[in-house]
Design a protein that fits this description.
The protein is mainly beta. It is built from no helices and 21 strands.
Length: 289
């Protein structure tokens, strides 16, 4: 049988970043992925806020087109983001009450563009927190680099051409009425990989209330003798409803031969880029022997 060669051109989203799943040093800083940079990395409408804006920047050397749209994601109790198909009890979304403009932008290289958001709360809105994600997607052009891959199946070959599509999603949160939340840290444990070159501190955040929490995780080791030191840190960690638990792992630089106490704290961060806060939301300790 003659060998059949099929050439199929496909577009594939190979990189989609949900900002709240990443560690970012400040909600005001820009996050860049591929040809996209956005700032700030999260928007929070408090009770009296009605307007906000996001700066989108073309970081490439050629003109690019970007499409802006809403998406709904949830952070499940495994600590993973997933698409929302059917809302869970207590799960609320902000996209239905926010208008934004423009919806598609073509930018010269290195140029920014402001995307403006306007909040209009409906009458009789139930108290609580509402969250959706504003997604910025680079529209592929004919000049974009493609990834060719040859797939062999017996006497048949199929060549697939993939066009990477980059996107960034940032959370847009609306808080209305009375919103409260508290958190505790449980299930602390230390784990080493097979070659014992890396130690990981595992924990579970247990959240109560009707709003999310956003902060930094800091691990500090206090030896039985000597001064304490920070051995691990993650910034910009979110805990979102409706999930009441979020597992989390933090790499730590720890000498297991040295006894002492590992102290973990979860400290609040500014949530809308205004002011600052060092409030300690939760702490826990783990003996190291």
């Amino acid at each position: 049988m003659d060998r059949i060669v099929n050439r199929i051109s496909r577009r594939l989203t190979v990189l989609a970043v949900i900002v709240c799943g990443l560690a970012v040093s400040s909600p005001r800083l820009a996050l860049a992925v591929g040809d996209i940079a956005v700032s700030p990395t999260r928007i929070v409408f408090e009770e009296r806020d009605r307007k906000a804006q996001v700066s989108l920047i073309n970081t490439s050397s050629t003109a690019k087109t970007y499409r802006i749209s809403w998406t709904r994601k949830r952070l499940n109790e495994k600590g993973e983001y997933e698409d929302v198909e059917t809302p869970l009890p207590g799960e609320r979304f902000s996209d239905e009450m926010i208008r934004y403009s423009p919806r598609q932008i073509t930018l010269p290289p290195g140029k920014p563009q402001l995307v403006r958001l306007l909040l209009r709360k409906p009458a009789e809105l139930e108290a609580g927190e509402y969250r959706s994600y504003l997604r910025f997607t680079a529209v592929p052009s004919a000049d974009d680099q493609k990834i060719d891959q040859l797939v062999v199946n017996g006497d048949q070959q199929m060549r697939i051409s993939l066009t990477p599509i980059m996107s960034i999603s940032i959370p847009v949160i609306v808080r209305h009425g009375q919103t409260t939340a508290d958190v505790r840290i449980s299930s602390l444990g230390l784990h080493e990989n097979a070659d014992q070159r890396r130690t990981t501190l595992s924990m579970v955040f247990e959240r109560n209330g009707n709003r999310s929490l956003y902060g930094d995780v800091i691990a500090e080791f206090q030896p039985t003798q000597g001064a304490s030191k920070i051995v691990g840190q993650a910034t910009g960690v979110s805990i979102y409803p409706p999930a009441n638990k979020r597992p989390f792992e933090l790499p730590v630089e720890l000498d297991r031969a040295q006894p002492g106490t590992l102290k973990v704290s979860f400290r609040a961060r500014p949530e809308s880029g205004r002011g600052s806060s060092e409030e300690i939301l939760a702490t826990a300790q783990l003996p190291v022997r």
